[in-house]
Amino acid sequence: MKKKTVFAITVGVLAAAVYLRHVFFKGELPSEPPPAICHADTLSAKPQPQPLPYGLVRIRDMDTSILVDLKYATTDNFTGKILYPCAEAYLQRETAEKLYAAGQYLQSLHPDLRLLVYDAARPLSIQQKMWDAVKNTPYRKYVADPERTSLHNYGAAVDLTLSGRNGKPLDMGTAFDHFGEAASTVREDELLRRGRLTEQQVSNRKLLREVMQKAGFQSISGEWWHFNSCTLAEARRRYPLLSGRDPLLVNNTASLPDTLPAMENSRQQ
Ligand SMILES: [Zn+2]
Asked: Ligand 1 centre from 10 Cα, in Å?
């Protein structure tokens, strides 16, 4: 048989195999990847954030569509005091890349929704101030002891919610940093039955968890807004502790009040 004939038969057999595979296994073949969503006004280009000390990057440099309302740079937090000297939010680069992925996934599902960050990297000096505010109160269980450190102190955790494009947060049933059972992520069914949460509030929380978990974050049981990028042991091994000497994050002189407001009541919506 001539070489040309052999070649033609081979090509024909391969083409037929491909055709038949499509005909008989149509439903099982992997579908084409969805087309990329490219709204210049909503989605940022491939992020190339500037590397900063401690391996941190600024969230704004990673993705301008992610909104930031850094609560500890305002008085709207459980201490009632400004703890951060500036309202910029930072994360470890790997954590920020996951957050970028979560934001992209959210917008593929709901183009009008945004991630709204409440807290990110947190220097140990600020962790100490938070701990000092609650360590002698029943609320100590809601704040990590700086002796043990928090994933925030490595830039490997983020607190956030969902919002519209205008930054108006979706209703999650409690405010950020609510000190009480209604912030629980594992008792939502019970809270729904008792009427403490509505179906819409639970649905909003589930959407937040879905996009964050899809990007590789883990939620925790006690706070719907908090997500870890890795375990504390991994963070200790891989990232430097934010000791608080970094001029990006500290130079804070704010002091805490001697007494705290009745947090359980004041933080409820
Ligand atoms: Zn947190």
From this structure: 61
Same domain assignment for residues 59 and 1: no
Distance 168 CA to ligand 1 centre (A): 20
Distance spanning both ends of the chain, measured CA to CA: 83
Q: Residue 264 Cα, ligand 1 centroid: separation in angstroms?
A: 18
If asked whether residues 135 and 25 sit together in one domain, one would say no
Over its length of 269 residues, how does the chain's per-residue pLDDT go in tens digits? 555 555 555 544 444 443 434 333 333 333 333 333 333 344 445 678 888 888 999 999 999 999 999 999 999 999 999 998 888 899 999 999 999 999 999 999 999 999 999 999 999 989 999 999 999 998 898 899 999 999 999 999 999 999 999 999 999 999 999 999 999 999 999 999 999 999 999 999 999 999 999 999 999 999 999 999 999 999 999 999 998 555 455 443 333 333 333 333 333 32
Burial 94-131 (b: 16+ CB within 10 A, else e): bbbbbbbbbbbebbeeeeebbbbbbbbbbbbbbbebbb
Q: How far is the CA of 249 from the centre of ligand 1 (A)?
A: 17
Same domain, yes or no: 22 and 117? no
| Ligand 1 centroid, distance to 25 Cα (angstroms) | 47
Q: Burial level of 163, CB count in 10 A (0-12/13-18/19+)?
A: middle
- The structure tokens listed for 30 are 């992997």
For residue 37, tell me if it sits in a domain. no
Q: Measure 120 CA to ligand 1 centroid, in angstroms.
A: 7
Q: Is residue 142 part of a domain?
A: yes
Expressed in angstroms and rounded, the spacing between residue 48 Cα and the centre of ligand 1 is 25
Same domain, 25 and 70: no
Q: Which residues constitute the domain of residue 83? A: 42-266
**What is the 37 CA–ligand 1 centroid distance (Å)?**
30
Tokens of 124: 């140990």
